[in-house]
Design goal:
Helix content: 25-40%
CATH class of the largest domain: Alpha Beta
Distance between the termini: 57 Å
Number of strands: 20
CATH superfamily of the largest domain: ANL, N-terminal domain
Shape: globular
Radius of gyration: 23 Å
Strand content: 25-35%
Oligomer: single chain
Largest sheet: 12 strands, mixed
CATH topology of the largest domain: Rossmann fold
């Protein structure tokens, strides 16, 4: 029987504290002993380490900032990802476990010929996918990034059945093939795709599925942590894996947020080689929990909305431009809009300035629809909707403007 998340957490905390000096320093600095972390809920006592802080620690104590829990000479690879961040590569079973889980939900494995277009140069993604896919019995073409014409030739000559890489590059390959006169669906055997590393618009997924007959799995993760969540059915929610502890927390307090609330995605890996406890990804997500207090992590989902630095806190809730953009997209008749945050009598005030798509719009109906959509997506009540003319809100204006002035 597989160990529970709590049991695995206890093991990795003990291991990390004993073998990774940076983890011991973080725990000691917070006055937390490893024995006190018994459940996922107990992790709230441990400070979140941001990626920026991780880079600072690596610069101060190169190359791994005190997080490496094995001798340097035991490593198989050392990678360098944007940050810059050094990342150790070796027998990291936890990362491989997350990749294998996503490959399985994508239906990619034995018998598949896989075009791997993730980078093999310096970053870990290409090699990590390669090792897992070949371990599952697939044949991998280490294509890496670029050279569409050559990749299309290999896809045709070698009967490629599966693709791993970014969604935009997959679309670029398809368009390149069709520009050359091929009917992609008929000319190629590709039927499965595992995409990651960038957002995939719903319209793009629909095109992949309906026009080109692809089975698409969209995965979310980071180089340090492996995959954390996935989506195989469309929509915005991504189901959490249980190959790491994934929390959605208030970026200021580190406490977990409630269902429907937005916070930073924070993960604790079970990677004994490089045990990262409460690493802040910098990504903001909405916490989707079907049964608060009862659901397992694997039954919960997240909806990614953007990056922490782009969010504005309104009456205790983080509002990200992508959340607002989604809300506005639910209401017909809006040409442009801007949310303005002010403060009156010690209370935040949210005003929507809206340019209607057509003159003579029903102000009352539009106001009601916008208020409902924003409250549903952002969990914040709109105080006022102002309909303005074209000249009062320029195209390309910021979606959220914070005009609050704080007393110093």
């Amino acid at each position: 029987m597989q160990a529970s998340l709590d049991e695995r957490l206890q093991q990795i905390v003990q291991h990390a504290y004993a073998h990774a000096p940076a983890v011991k320093a973080i725990f000691d600095g917070a006055g937390v002993k490893p024995d006190e972390i018994r459940t996922v809920a107990d992790l709230a006592r441990v400070p979140v380490t941001s990626k920026d802080r991780l880079a600072e620690l690596q610069a101060a104590t190169p190359p791994f900032g005190g997080f490496l829990a094995a001798p340097l000479e035991s490593l198989e690879h050392i990678f360098l990802s944007p940050g810059p961040l050094y990342e150790p590569g070796g027998k990291a079973a936890a990362v491989a476990e997350s990749i294998e889980a996503v490959c399985q939900v994508a239906g990619i494995g034995a018998g598949d010929v896989v075009l791997n277009t993730f980078g093999y140069h310096l970053i870990p993604t290409g090699l990590a996918l390669d090792a897992t896919l070949t371990g599952l019995g697939a044949t991998v073409i280490p294509a890496g990034v670029g050279n569409a014409e050559l990749q299309l030739k290999m896809m045709s000559d070698l009967g490629v059945t599966a693709y791993v890489g970014t969604p935009s590059w997959l679309m670029a390959l398809i368009q390149k093939a069709e520009e050359g006169g091929a009917q992609f669906r008929e000319a190629f055997k590709l039927r499965k795709a595992l995409v990651s590393a960038e957002p995939m618009p719903p319209a793009m997924r629909q095109t992949f599925v309906e026009t080109y007959g692809l089975q698409v799995a969209n995965a979310y993760g980071t180089a340090e942590l492996g995959f954390l969540a996935y989506n195989v059915e469309g929509g915005m929610a991504m189901q959490l894996l249980e190959t790491a502890v994934v929390q959605v927390v208030n970026p200021e307090s580190g406490e977990s947020v409630g269902p429907g609330e937005v916070g930073e995605v924070v993960a604790t890996t079970f990677n004994e080689l490089y045990p990262l406890i409460r690493l802040g990804t910098g990504d903001l997500a909405m916490n989707v929990d079907p049964a608060p207090g009862e659901s397992r992590q694997g039954e919960r989902s997240i909806i990614l909305v953007g990056r922490v630095g782009d969010a504005v806190k309104v009456r205790g809730m983080f509002v990200h431009p992508n959340q607002l953009r989604f809300a506005l997209g639910q209401v017909p008749g809006v040409a442009r809009a801007q949310a303005v945050v002010t403060r009156q009598e010690h209370r935040d005030r949210l005003t929507l300035r809206v340019v209607p798509a057509e003159a003579g719009a029903d102000e009352e109906a539009l106001t009601a629809a916008l208020g409902e959509a924003v409250r549903g997506a952002c969990r914040v009540k709109v105080d006022e909707v102002l309909l303005v003319g074209e000249g009062e809100l320029e195209e390309g204006a910021p979606l959220i403007v914070d005009e609050r002035q704080w007393e110093t």
